[in-house]
Design a protein that fits this description.
The chain has no helices and 28 strands. The protein is an all-beta fold. 46% of the residues are buried.
């Protein structure tokens, strides 16, 4: 069964089911920028490839259940993802576009949040195989699996672009408050780097690495209803408040971040300089716009747009022009991301 969250004005976490997607293909599709999307198809959610002009749509999976947590391999040839069916969430892999998907895990509990090492040789993920959600590593064929954390309840894991660290979000002993930690891939040298509590809500607690691996942007609560984006160095020694907002995403050149600023019944995407000196609104019109994600070359930004009950992956040029609705999507924000750019 596909799980969905209700829309709430404060957190803006709803993802609303879309319509069935027609399948097309184009021999020249691979030459155009593409996104992988978790797209509704009848009573399932399938992995679908769409070009940024919206002219080519190709379904990559055809299985019962639902896909989520899409993660491209660094070379852009394969995709790891979470496949959920009958209450079990396992990691699957399409080794290259056009190949059949195959299971990487067959473990008890939930197995989520796949993230590739920059060299493409390993995948880090979260597993509840022994009860408490912990971080595991494995090779990309599913072998050599090993546990790298032993304490805490981990929610997310992401590999730094330089391959030197993992960023993890883990709950405190009370189970409610969350903190951001940076550690070596073997679990050593673990240190907390946030100065305030992270927001314990899906879609807001995922930290964003700068392209060089030197900094992280994360979201914490300020006051009763305000969210704040902070940038911290990977060693935790230097941090600065950037802006009110959430869902930060670094530009490929490291000079800017896209983030969401919400008000009652409305959420807009802004582009903010990484040094905090300037900000401009990217999206136009009314609606709820979530989860901005930069194209690998920095020329465009994809995001989720909710308008009149329709949830769709939408793309716009980095200057805010040329907005285009690409494809319906569905799911819940615990299964991020629901769409991802193919690496160059």
């Amino acid at each position: 069964m596909v799980r969905r969250l209700p829309l709430t004005p404060v957190l803006l976490l709803a993802l609303i089911a879309g319509s069935t997607v027609p399948i097309q293909s184009s021999p020249s599709a691979s030459s155009r920028p593409q996104l992988a999307v978790a797209s509704p198809v009848r009573a399932t959610v399938q992995l679908t490839l769409v070009t940024t002009d919206g002219l080519s749509i190709r379904r990559l999976t055809d299985t019962p259940g639902a896909v989520s947590s899409l993660a491209w391999s660094p070379d852009g040839r394969g995709i790891a993802f979470v496949h959920e069916i009958r209450g079990s969430r396992q990691l699957w892999l399409i080794p290259q576009i056009g190949a059949a998907a195959r299971a990487l895990t067959a473990l008890p509990g939930d197995n989520t949040s796949p993230t590739w090492s920059p060299d493409g040789r390993r995948i880090a993920f979260i597993s509840t195989r022994d009860g408490s959600p912990q971080v595991f590593l494995m090779s990309t064929d599913g072998r050599g699996r090993r546990q790298v954390t032993r304490r805490g309840a981990h929610r997310t894991v992401s590999w730094s672009p330089d391959g030197r660290h993992l960023a993890v979000v883990a709950a405190r002993a009370n189970g409610a408050d969350l903190d951001l930690y940076v550690m070596r891939p073997d679990g050593s040298d673990r240190r907390r780097v946030n100065s305030a509590r992270l927001l314990p809500h899906p879609g807001m607690m995922h930290p964003a690495w700068s392209r060089d691996g030197g900094h992280l942007a994360y979201v914490s609560r300020v006051g009763r209803a305000e969210q704040e984006v902070t940038i911290v160095s990977a060693d935790g020694r230097a941090r600065r408040r950037l802006s009110t907002g959430y869902a930060p995403a670094w530009s490929p050149d490291g000079r800017s971040l896209a983030l969401v600023v919400s008000r009652v019944g409305d959420a807009q995407i802004y582009i903010t300089s990484a040094d905090g000196t300037g900000s401009r609104r990217l999206t136009r019109g009314t609606g709820i716009f979530l989860l901005p994600t930069w194209a690998p070359d920095g020329s465009a930004i994809a995001f989720l747009a909710i308008r009149d009950g329709d949830l769709a992956v939408t793309v716009v040029r980095a200057d805010g022009s040329g907005e285009r609705r690409l494809l319906s999507t569905t799911g819940d924000l615990t299964g991020l991301p629901l769409f991802a750019w193919q690496p160059l």
